[in-house]
Structure formats: structure tokens, C-alpha cells
Amino acid sequence: MGKDMRACAALLAAVVVLAGCSFGRINSRDFAQPGGALPAGSTVAVLPFENLTNHPNAGQIAADIVSTELYGVEGLRTLEVGRVRSRLSAGKPAADAAPVDGQSDAAPLDAQAAGRTLGVDAVLAGSVSEYGYQHGLREEPVVGLNARLVRVSDGAVLWTSSQSEAGRGYFSRDSVNNVAQRVATRMIDSLRPVVAAAR
């Protein structure tokens, strides 16, 4: 009986350890300005994210994923991503519009000035700090995003978020895109109260 209980306990411990390995490491920090909220019906544009990684398109990929999540926030009207890019490109001198080191999303934009150019109430600007695979005992996908919501009228930062996650477990392999989707979902979920508070 004692052997059976020890074997059962060892098996249970192994299951708990493996279950723990099947979930990624998550870091999450969110802040909202007290009393800072967007009125229902406000227009928001997602700016190209600054790319701080070696992946050449990480900034654009992150902005697209975040834009998709933002469409689901009730009370906001989101400017279409292609329109944002074309309006921002049209407003730049030709020399500024050229890619830097092959990365069109390499330099940060002045969020308030971009918002005025786009004619929106607020802009969501951000950066990608990690996007790729982390090497160790095994490759794990890892994504890190930082974002802020800036009110165009006065340049006030109404909300900020910093999210990162390393991929999940041994039983199923995550792709970088899966991890990026979860990071963006958590990020936009933390933004919802900034809009909901205005209703």
C-alpha cells in the first residue's frame, strides 16, 4: 500500500511539473491615468510599432495584430491600418519615407503629431522589444510588446501596457504568432476599462 501511494504521489508530482511546463512565462504591467477616459465613439489609429528586434517586420506585424484586437473594443472606431500607413507616408518627405536598414518601422513617430495628421481622437503607439525564438535547452517563441494610448488634443498618455510571454510547453509547440496573439489580447483587454469608464 505504501509503495502504491508513493508511486501515485510521484506520478502526481510529475503531472504537476509537466502541466506547469505547458504554460508560458508571462510578464504583464498596465497603467491607466486616473480619470482619463475616451468618450464612446472616439476614433483611434494604431501607429506602426517601433521595431527593437532583429526581425525585419516585427513592428508591422505587431501593429496589425493589435489593430485586429482593437476592432473588438466596444465604443471605439478604429482607423483602417492601410489608411494609417498611406496617410503617414503621404505626410512625410521622400527621404523620411525610405526604409532604414530595410526596416520601414525602425523609427518612432511623434504620436500626437501623427494623430493630428490622421485626424483621430487618439493614437495607440508602441514598440516591439522581443519577437522570435529564445535559444536554450529548446527553442521557445518569445514576444514582448509595449504600448501607450495618447489623446491627440493634449498629448496626454491615458494608458500604457508592457506585456511579454515565452511560448508554452513540451506537449504542443507554439509559434511566435500564437504568442503574439495572446500578448496583444491581454494588452487590449487591459485597455477596455479606459473606454468603458466613459460610457
Write a brief caption for the model.
By secondary structure, the chain is an alpha/beta fold.
Question: How would you portray this structure in words?
Answer:
It is built from six helices and seven strands; from the N terminus they run αβββαβαααβββα. It has helices at residues 2-21, 58-70, 81-90, 94-97, 111-118, 176-196, and strands spanning 26-32, 42-46, 50-51, 76-78, 122-134, 140-151, 157-166. Strands 1, 2, 3, 4, 5, 6 and 7 form a seven-stranded mixed sheet that branches. Helix 2 (58-70) crosses helix 6.
Percent of residues in helical segments?
A: 25-40%
**Global shape:** globular
Order of helices and strands: HEEEHEHHHEEEH
Helix vs. strand class = alpha/beta
Q: Give the terminus-to-terminus CA distance.
A: 62 Å
Strand share of the residues?
25-35%
Average residue pLDDT:
81
Strand tally is 7
* Tally of separate helices: 6
Largest sheet: 7 strands, mixed
Low-confidence stretches: 13-22, 94-107
Integer-rounded radius of gyration:
20 Å
List the keywords.
199 residues, alpha/beta, 7 strands
Strand-helix topology:
Blueprint: H1 2-21, E1 26-32, E2 42-46, E3 50-51, H2 58-70, E4 76-78, H3 81-90, H4 94-97, H5 111-118, E5 122-134, E6 140-151, E7 157-166, H6 176-196
Helix pairs in contact: 2-6
